[in-house]
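Entry:
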Amino acid sequence: MPPGSEHEFEAFARASQRKLYRTAYLLCGNADGARDLTQTTLAKLFQHWRRVSAADHPDAYARTVLTRTFLAERRRRLRDLLAHTRADAPPRPEHAELRVTLLAALAELPPRARAMVVLRYWEDLSVETVAQLLRCSEGTVKSQCSRALVKLRAQLGEAHMYATES
């Protein structure tokens, strides 16, 4: 099989699709978004398959594409939302609904912080690797992860407290 061939891509896609979907699900928080993100990632990888197949670690390359695609989509959605939001929108209620699952708690984090937490703690990547993937400093990864974990602990701690009362 020649390097960079369609058959090689198909084999790679079959082998890595599940792992990409799992990471996408954790980032998006829902199955539909995860399927779309995985499909978009695989399409981008196919477009540049010669470069991907020549990389030392195609799985890491794929994870980078997935993460950056997720962040770009979130930024795009935020821009669209801000462009269509009235200036006098009502404030959010002070007490948000009780979050009892990890996915719901993750959904409350900003996209970049969510990506850092998922990559650092779920995918078990090093601080250095996450910093390279997200094009930021290692200190940024450490501080953002620390802040995100404080938020998650607060949300999940409250959920646990209320869950044991009933």
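Helices lie at 6-28, 31-47, 49-54, 58-83, 102-107, 111-122, 127-134, 138-165.
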